[in-house]
Amino acid sequence: MEHKVIGKSVERWDAIAKVTGRANYTGDIPQKELLYGKICRAKIAHGRVKNMDISEALKVPGVVKILTPDDVPEISFPTAGHPYSLDPKFADVADRRILTRNVRLYGDEIAAVIAESELAAEIAVSKIKVEYEEYEFYLTPEEALKEGAVEIHEGTKNIIADTTLEIGDLDSGFKEADIIIEDICATPIVQHCQMENQIAYAYKDVDNRWVCVSSTQIPHIVRRVLGQAFGMPWGRFRVIKPFIGGGFGNKQDIVVEPLAVAMSMAVGGKAVMLDLHREEVFAWTRVRHAISYKIKMGFTNDGIITALDIDAISNNGAYASHGHSIVSKGSGIVTAIYKVPNYRYRGRTVYTNTAAAGAMRAYGTPQITYALETFMNKFSIMTGIDQFELRAKNFTKVNDENPVLHMTQHSMSLRECLDKGRQIFNWDEKRKSIDESKDSDFVRGLGMAAFAYTSGAYPKTMEIAGCRLVLNQDGSIKMMMGATEIGQGADTVFSQMVADTVGIPFEWVIADAVTDTDIAPFDTGAYASRQTFVSGMAVKKAAVELKEKILEASYHFSKKTNKVTVDDMDIVDGNIIQKHDGQIIESLGDLALKTYYNMHEGHCLTADVSNRCTKNAYPYGVTLAEVEVDKKTGKVEVLSILNVHDSGKIINPLLASGQVEGGMAQGLGYGLSEELKYDEKTGKPLNNNLLDYKMPTFMDIPDLGVSFVEIDDPVGPYGNKSLGEPPLCSPAPALRNAIIDALGIYVKDIPVTPQKIIEALSENREV
Amino acid sequence: MYQINGYFEASTIKEAIDYLVGNENSQVIAGGTDVLIKTRERKSGYTDKDLVGIMRIPVLKGINLDDDGNILIGSTTTFTEVEEDEIIQRNIPSLAAACGSVGGPQIRNIGTIGGNVANGATSADSASTLFAMDAVICLEGPEGKREIPIKEFYLGPGKVAMNKGELMTHIKILKENFMCFKGHYIKFSQRKAMDIATLGCSIMVKTTGNKIDELKIAYGVAGPTPIRATEAEAIAKGMEITTENLDLIGEKCLENASARDSWRASKAFRQQLIRELPKRAIKIALGGGE
Question: Which of A332, A540, A654, B226 is the most exposed place for a label (fewest CB within 10 A)?
């Protein structure tokens, strides 16, 4: 298909407003009167609040009110940003209260102060006296699962879910194997570190409904959960999302909104803002699940996978949030990339007293990709089979049905990604020069890893998206979306889709600076890399409909003077033309004026669609990395790194490269340095700040290589598959594999820190 | 949020001292990159204070050579100013490098070398180099002026030998402690910027031919305060510079260090760094390259 706007690096419509500071984020929007909320957090890791004395805190000048669990609804609600499930069996676990007497992690939310200033609120929090009854606490699933462990949530035995999936015959699969490898590996708790902390404020509006302005990825879902948390009709709430400084899944969860609304309700509807500090965001919003894997994998001598047995234990922390969906997602990711004839995948999701784990960019896939790709690497080292060939031999193919997800894939260009990557990375030349320089303290190594992902959440959850288009009086088009711009550039890409499909310049499409649940069509929000794929389908449907209406109208208004039929009409660069000779019939602006003001036949042209997506398309990709390791200090320097993606058609190459670079940088931290740690004696988070949590800085990131293999996917609305989350899936295993290539020793867990390298070297662990 | 009771801007040393003496609740603030962080975290002793600003006292700022050729660094000289100063770059480039390794540009533009030392942290990037040069801390208080060797200035984690009402005015580096020496500072941290040292190692070395005349090795984070590896320094005297001898020196450094296990790093890992970093620093100082 020939495109005029799609595939072009148009400048994002909000770029200038953002870089000049004119874009308003939640904290920027002025209120006539604003009160400030501050959470009083438990100072034990597990137990119960026996008694709370707020008398001294109430005396602090500026304090308006203090809320305790007695002052909020006794209703448990779910927090995951998933679509509502009509079947209660699949509903998210409702285990959260706005404030709690049961302390399930250090820092749990036991009271909240409302004050005239943030400082007054903080001083008051420091004066609240709490008596606790303390229980034993658990920082790992192993501890939480031990015999007689105290239940963090009553009646759960600390297990959120324990499921096993089996395909083929595992025993005969291992019998067919010539080589069987068994091992364990583990991934850490990490945090999103999105630039803008969680922030929300709430007030009672002129129509007596409750408005919550929040930095969220999922405005429509927030509205629903507010309804659930307060036991009130969902329509009593309105959620507004201004510009947002990133989320990476941390804002695909309901974290601050119910408390913000509860605080406003407590002060007669005055606006109350809850603005978390970075330290709170680290420790008490959401994190990525730490998952440990026990894996047994059988291969033929040629490197064909015959059997795979995975036992995954996922640390969900203190509240269910997205819960079991994360570890179970891994099961279908394995079969999206490799053919595994005999397969067992057991996933257990366990409550512990650490931060609640929820959605984080690529939703369980960086974990399973790490595990799988370190195993592929191990087999390659054991047998000498080329890493690229070993993987390619086992790749799934076009038109294969994924036996876990029961979806057929229609495009798969991973082989092309491997070949392209190998060539532009100069892998083979690098290999030669590395092999010649092995005997100094600084050794170099190469590593690679491949991944698969999904586009949207179908068939795990339903997928609907809405788009409303209005032809304005001058021929420009107002676009309204429920899908959520969170910094990734979704609105820009949707605008490109509208412009391309209708046939107008990009600049004629007007996007929204806010998403408002009273106005925006229904869409579940920004997650699962679903925007260009799922919401893109709605955009296309609306744009096609509006274009048809425009051509019909033009035909109608001009048929007396013009003999052209609708079939011979098109819109190009904002003009309605005759297809056969390209002659302009009229400008879209002239037509639009007629639709608005024709005394007898005027009617505004709009398209307002909701689209249900019942498909999925798997994006793929590969990371290649070269590192230099200092054998005496364990320091790793990433010399070069490249991601090659098969995401189908790339709608906006510049924005796409930006997403890939960001994901690679996050993957670099995941592989080498990031981990949220807890004090074993107290259960307190140790490094919940940007100094002690080692997110790489700009100076730690090398030039990032980005490349695409662009082959249209037949299912994607414009040949596109997802790209938002995929870039983070494969850098960590590629880096780890490069490090062990350099050192010839074995490191099993990420992050591969200098200390772990020195330990492995001193123990001389064999690969 | 910052709970601060009051702020007094001193324009002379005397004004500052008078205020400090007269107000039990007072607390000196220079660049604020330690004090304000502690205030924000509501650390005990750092909330509701009457702060005394000393950044606009002219005599506390700047770097000079005195009549004897000693280097005098004003206590409120910022890291950036130290890093970019010509006297420092010419005579003690390792201190310029140490100051250039602190945090990020914003921190270096406001944080001061005096504050770095007065804060009493073992991880202070400038401190190990100042230890390696046996710097002298110049104080002024209600009782007058006094000078104290940096070794004695550090009493323990966060504790320094400053009395109530005293201000650090200068850091003095004697000519004999830098002339004819070559020095190098290595900050080992997980990140290349915005980070705290896992271990800092600063060396000063004087050689004749291939022989070590004098070697000074100082560490940050190898103990509760910055330390000197005096045992290693003693055996190094007169040593030929060979790989074997450097290994001996590195090993000997462990005798003065008291590395411990913490969640930030294991004892074994710190010890490996304690062994390795001085060898590298010596090689680099002597032009061996990295």
Answer: A654
Question: Alpha-carbon distance B150 to B124, whole Å?
Answer: 13
Instruction: Residue B125: name the closest of B137, B142, B110, B108 by CA.
Output: B108
Mutate to test the interface with A, among B38, B186, B194, B221 (most CBs of A within 10 A): B194
Closest to A497 in 3D by CA, of A3, A2, A14, A1:
A3
| B231 in contact with chain A, both atoms CB, cutoff 8 A | no
* H helical segments located in A559-618: 588-597
Global confidence as pTM:
0.97
Q: Rounded CA gap, A382 and A384, in Å?
A: 6
Distance from CA of A456 to the nearest CA of B (A): 35
Residue from A229, A283, A217 nearest A253 by CA: A217
Q: How many CB atoms lie within 10 A of CB B57?
A: 22
Helix A653-672 and helix A731-743: axis angle, to 10°?
A: 50
Angstroms from A123 CA to nearest CA on chain B: 8
Host H or E run for residue B120: none
Condensed to tens digits (0 to 9), the pLDDT of residues A417-470 reads 999 999 999 999 999 999 776 668 999 999 999 999 999 999 999 999 999 999
Whether the CB of B193 is below 8 Å from some CB of chain A: the reply is yes
The four Cα atoms A634, A635, A636, A637 give a dihedral, to 10 degrees, of -150
Structure tokens belonging to residue A78: 């779910």
Average pLDDT, chain A: 97
Rounded to whole angstroms, the Cα distance separating A39 from A36 reads 10
Q: pLDDT by residue (tens digit) across B205-238?
A: 999 999 999 999 999 999 999 999 999 999 999 9
Least CB–CB distance from B191: residue in A118, A632, A694:
A694
Q: Which run of H or of E encompasses A63?
A: strand A63-67
A119/B194 CB distance under 8 A: no
Cβ of B269 and A759 within 8 Å? yes
**Shortest CB distance from B265 goes to which of A122, A691, A755?**
A755
- Give me the residue label for tokens 């820092």: A107
Rounded distance between C-alpha atoms, residue A368 and residue A450, angstroms: 11
Q: What is the H or E stretch that residue B280 is in? A: helix B267-285
Nearest to B55 by CA among B28, B95, B88, B17: B28
Q: What angle do CA A413, A418, A419 make, to 5 degrees?
A: 100
d(CA A436, CA A152): 56
